[in-house]
Amino acid sequence: MTHQSTQSVGNGLQLDVQLDFTDWTLNKKPIRASLVKGAAVVRKEARRIVSRRAVSLAGEFPGMQTGALKRAIGIVGKGSKGGWVKVGVRSIPNSVFYPAFLFYGSPKTNLAKRGNFMEQALDHRRDEVRNMIRASFQQAIEAR
Fold first, then answer.
1. d(Cα 26, Cα 132) in Å, to the nearest integer?
2. Which of 7, 35, 103, 111 has a Cα-to-Cα distance from 63 of 20 to 30 A?
3. Where are the domains of the chain?
């Protein structure tokens, strides 16, 4: 068994950490699973935000008319080794990339920019997702 002690002093705060360990491994499976679950939580919140059936004004979140934008919100990409998951708006078939027009606006079509619903969804669920991933890291570290 190895004993390691670290001491740090800064800004009037003293931190003393002592660890007893032999060897450890990192099981990435629970981490990947929690990233996908966290992405699902953010996706669900983003879909909830854009599901209001109303005409949106400048600066508001987009309202739903056909539901194509709502259905296009999902997991856009994953890291090859499971280190990250990206939630966003996938391309809508037979359409230009509509979310870009919503985010930036378009002077040609007289469309003012709308609120960023993806950012708001993450802000609403940030603590829940962070706690989920933190718990998975605690499960993933295994002492040998």
1. 17
2. 35
3. 23-143
